[in-house]
Amino acid sequence: MRIINLKKQLGRFSIDIPYLALAKGCIHGFIGENGSGKTTTAKLIANILQPDEGQILYDGLEPRSITMSSQKPYMLHTSVYENLIYPLKIRNIKPDEKAIDAMLQKYDLYEKKKQYARSLSSGEQQKLSLLRTLIFQPEFVIVDETLSNLSAESLELFENLIWEIQKKRCITWVLISHQPHIINELCDTVHFFSNGRLIESGRKEQVFLHSQNPIVKTYVQRQAFGLLKEG
After folding, report:
1. Which of 158, 136, 162, 160 is nearest to 149 (CA)?
2. Strand partners, 14
3. Which residues, 6+ apart, have CB-to-CB distance to 118 below 8 Å?
4. Which residues lie below 8 Å from residue 177, measured CB to CB, with a gap of 6+?
5. What is the predicted pLDDT for the residue at 150?
6. What is the CA 153 to chain-centroid distance, rounded?
7. Per DSSP, which regions of the chain are E strands?
8. Is 55 helix (H, G, I), strand (E, B) or coil?
9. I need a surface site. Which of 44, 97, 109, 178 has the fewest CB within 10 A?
10. 2-73+140-230: CATH topology
11. Tell me: the pLDDT tens digits for 33-43?
């Protein structure tokens, strides 16, 4: 996927990205401060928002093969099960009941299969949102802070799930997170945003350890200091 001269105005905030390439089959990380343009860019990629100018070249990727989950996922006014299979229903795909039950069991949602989805805890809703995002086997997945409220055990399960998917199908991911250890653990390439601009892209080692951009260096140093304080 390639983004060329992309512009979007939202009130006083604007996105301006001359060029961004998202290599197929890679796990990309979008990082930067709050309000830097990460989520807006992701929504433009996912066709949730439409650009004012510029192009997003999908290079053969079908729009229905792109999916996005968010930090505060939208739950339909129905059961956990109906929320989970919704992407299958709109694509006229018959659910595999045994596979779905096994998935719910693995992620500790089986006992809540018939429960009203909006009554789940925030962490449970995020788990359900991630499973719903992946259930129809998309080719391009955007995960916007959806891993942030998961327990350490659930986070490890989903990290392993991402690796399992990559071994079998090698799809493209965009992970947006304020937790640098998640980006460092999972991502191949990092794209750093600031004030609606993409200011650096590269291998994670290059961006985290060798960037010469003062904005990036300050952000990385601050995040590293925060991790040291937590430790």
Report:
1. 158
2. 9
3. 75, 77, 125
4. 29, 31, 143, 145, 147, 148, 183
5. 77
6. 19
7. 2-10, 13-21, 27-31, 53-57, 66-69, 140-144, 172-176, 189-194, 197-203
8. strand
9. 97
10. Rossmann fold (3.40.50)
11. 989 999 999 99
Q: Which long-range contacts (CB under 8 A, 24 or more apart) does 149-152 make?
A: 149/71, 149/122, 149/123, 150/123, 150/126, 151/123
DSSP string, 95-149: --HHHHHHHHHHTT-GGGTTSBGGGS-HHHHHHHHHHHHHTT--SEEEEESTTTT
The answer on pLDDT for 190 being more than 80 is: yes
Which of 84, 166, 82, 80 lies closest to 133, judged by CA?
Answer: 84
Token representation of residue 102: 């096994």
Q: What are the extents of the domains in the chain? A: 2-73+140-230
Residue 135 neighbours by CB under 8 Å, 6+ apart: 84, 85, 87, 88, 100, 103
Helix (H/G/I), strand (E/B), else coil: 156: helix
Per-residue model confidence as pLDDT tens digits over 93-136: 999 999 999 999 999 999 999 999 999 998 899 899 999 999 99
- Side-chain-facing half-sphere of 54: CA atoms under 13 Å: 21
Q: Tell me, what's the pLDDT at 20?
A: 97
At 179, the amino acid letter reads: Q
Name the token pair of 212: 């010469």
Contact present, 67 and 46 (Cβ < 8 Å): yes
